[in-house]
Amino acid sequence: MPIKKTLFNVFLIMIYTWLLGSIYHVMTFRDNLRDDVEQIVTRIDAHLSTVEQELRQLPVLQQCDSTYMTLLRERVFNSVTLRGLIVGELQGPFPNLCSNFGLYSRHVDERDWDYSSRGDLLFGKVKFSKYRRDSSFALAVRRNDGLVIALVNPKAILGWWIGPNNKKSNITLSFTDEEAIRIERFGFSQSDSTLTYSFGLSSDVFPYQISVHRSSTEFLSQLVTFSYRLIGLFTAIYGALLGYLLMVKHRNRGDNVERSI
C-alpha cells in the first residue's frame, strides 16, 4: 500500500508540473509575440527616421535643372533604402515635381498615393509604378519650402529592415488612416491552422501599425515537445523510485524472515 501511495503521489506531481508548465508556455508564447512586435516597430522606426532626416536635410531649389536632378540621382544611388526622391511645392508658381526620374508638371494629390499623416509626416502607398513592377511606399515631409518624398521598396520594410527572424509569423503593416493599404509577409498559410494568435502595436512616431500573427500549430508543437520531455523525465524517476521501493520492501522482508528464525 505505501508503494502504491508513493507512486500515485509521484503521478500527481507530474500532472501538477505539466499544468504549471503549460501555463508557463502560454505566457511565454504570448510575451514572445509581444516582444517580436515591439522589436519590429523599433527597427522600422529606426529606418524611417534615417529616411526622415535625409528628407529634412535635402535642399529644395527654385528650379529643377539637370544639376539638381543629378544630386537627387546620386542620393538615391548611394542609398540602400531609397528607390526615388521627389521634390515639389504644395502651392504657388512651382507645381512641378522634380525627381531623380525627371521633371513632372503636376501637383501631388490623391491620384498619386494613399497615405496616413502624423504632424508634418506622411506615409503611404504610391499608386503608380511606372519604373517598378510593384508600387513603392513613400515617406514624405511637409516643409515650409515644399514637399519632399522618398520612395521606399516595400519588400525592404518587412524584409531586411526587420531581419531574418519571425520566419514562422505572418506580419502585417497597415496605415493608421488607410487600413485597406498594407504590406504583408507570410510565414505560414492560414489554412494550416484553425486558430491564430495575434498582437498589434502602433508606432509612436510614424502613422502605421504592425500586427504579428502566429499559428496555434506552433504553440501546440512546443507544448507537445514539453509534454514528451516531461513524460520521459518522470518515467525515469518513476522507474527508479519503483525499483528503490521494491528493493527496500524485499530487504525488509528478508530482515523479518531472519528475525523469525
Walkthrough of the structure:
With 261 residues, this protein is an alpha+beta fold. It has 4 helices and 11 strands; from the N terminus they run ααβββββββαββββα. The strands form 2 sheets. It has a 7-stranded antiparallel beta sheet with strand order 3-2-1-7-6-5-4. Strands 9-8-11-10 form a 4-stranded antiparallel beta sheet. β8 and β9 form a beta hairpin. The two termini are 26 Å apart.
Structural key phrases:
45% helix, four-stranded antiparallel β-sheet, seven-stranded antiparallel β-sheet, single chain, 261 residues
In spatial order, strands of the major sheet run: 3-2-1-7-6-5-4
What's the quaternary structure here? single chain
Number of helices: 4
Q: Roughly what is the average pLDDT, rounded to an integer?
A: 77
Low-confidence stretches: none
Distance between the termini: 26 Å
Query: What radius of gyration results from the CA coordinates?
Result: 31 Å
Helix percent band: 40-55%
Q: What structural class is derived from the secondary structure elements?
A: alpha+beta
Q: What are the secondary-structure elements, in order, as H or E?
A: HHEEEEEEEHEEEEH
**Biggest β-sheet strands, sense, barrel:** 7 strands, antiparallel
Shape call = rod-shaped
Number of strands: 11
Q: How much strand content do the residues show? A: 25-35%
